[in-house]
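Researcher: We're reviewing a set of sequences before deciding which ones to prioritize for further study. For each one, I'd like a predicted 3D structure that I can look through quickly. This is Ubiquinone biosynthesis accessory factor UbiK. If possible, include the structure in token form so it fits the rest of the review sheet.
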Amino acid sequence: MKGPQDILAQLQGQFGQFVPDMARAAREDFETQARATVMSVLSRLELVTREEFDAQQAVLMRTREKVEALESRVAELEQKLQGK
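Model: Here's the predicted structure for Ubiquinone biosynthesis accessory factor UbiK, in token form for your review sheet.
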């Protein structure tokens, strides 16, 4: 006949095998939920990729160069008009 100590040891052994499985399942569930939450937040933000950012930066640089050239040309024309 098994004594209370034997039954307790058997229960601890079974519980000890069960706990790592529970912990792993809980960790995996947490990681899945965390990943879904982060992806949800990121999808609501209006983020652009690095390539899109670089392309827009190049467009802005060309636009700035054109504006500076036009400002210079306008200044030249104003000086010519004042000189007449």
